[in-house]
């Protein structure tokens, strides 16, 4: 009888440990690696992120490479840039409202038409989406390595409450704990 | 619930999200649900057809009870009961 109860207790302890492991291994979290700097893809990123956040899913966006142009603040300037960085700065879009479309860009006419249609059909603007994202606690992580590669500096990025800087291992470890991972 | 039953419901809060497209109505629903008590009924008005599919999914995830949708001309009235 005694050993029976002890046996059950041992089994309960084992199950508790396994539940704790399962709970810590996967979270209700969406991790997106955002690489593209196209208007359409940034829009898709923000819409999916906001829908997830509305469902109380934790959202973590990892911005790298071309997408970093979307995080530039057109009002801000960075000093002490070398020649190549300055050149990149001139050639890449200055902020989320200057992004090109991946298709039908037509020298900027495409994005203008999309923005007109979005407004007409009451789709939130990118500015508004970022504002809502901030309110909902969506995290944005900037890949430090690609930021340096593109010649961007921290002081020229947008003001965003949940902005931080990290490396690829941060994305990998957070994606590993997330129930959903996307690459855009 | 039948359309007549839905029409007789007394929502504690009606969220008019007709001025916004996906995912706007969902965001407004999320904000509004925090202002009502468990067991209360909330009504979401949306002109976005995707919302009538999205809200039931949101309810399932959040544990709220989806009650039904009335198709008005040009918009939808979506009802749910807070967990």
What keyword list fits this structure?
heterodimer, A: 184 residues, alpha/beta, 5-stranded parallel sheet, 7 helices, elongated, B: 83 residues, alpha+beta, 4-stranded mixed sheet, 4 strands, 33% helix, 30% strand
Any chance you could write out the topology, listing elements then pairs?
The complex is a heterodimer of chains A (about 180) and B (about 80).
Chain A: H1 2-25, E1 27-34, H2 39-54, E2 58-63, H3 83-91, H4 109-120, H5 126-135, E3 139-143, H6 144-149, E4 163-166, H7 168-177, E5 178-183
Parallel strand pairs in A: 1-2, 1-5, 2-3, 3-4
Chain B: H1 3-7, E1 13-16, H2 24-33, E2 41-46, H3 51-62, E3 65-72, E4 75-81
Parallel strand pairs in B: 1-2
Antiparallel strand pairs in B: 2-4, 3-4
Give an account of the 3D structure.
The complex is a heterodimer of chains A (184) and B (83). Chain A has 7 helices and 5 strands; from the N terminus they run αβαβαααβαβαβ. Chain A has 184 residues and is an alpha/beta fold. Chain A starts with a helix and ends with a strand. Chain B has 83 residues and is of the alpha+beta class. Chain B has helices at 3-7, 24-33, 51-62, and strands at residues 13-16, 41-46, 65-72, 75-81. Chain B has a 4-stranded mixed sheet. In chain B, a hairpin with a 2-residue loop joins strand 3 (65-72) and strand 4 (75-81). The two termini of chain B are 18 Å apart. The mean pLDDT of chain B is 92. Classes of the chains: A alpha/beta (184), B alpha+beta (83). The interface between A and B is medium-sized, with 12 and 15 residues.
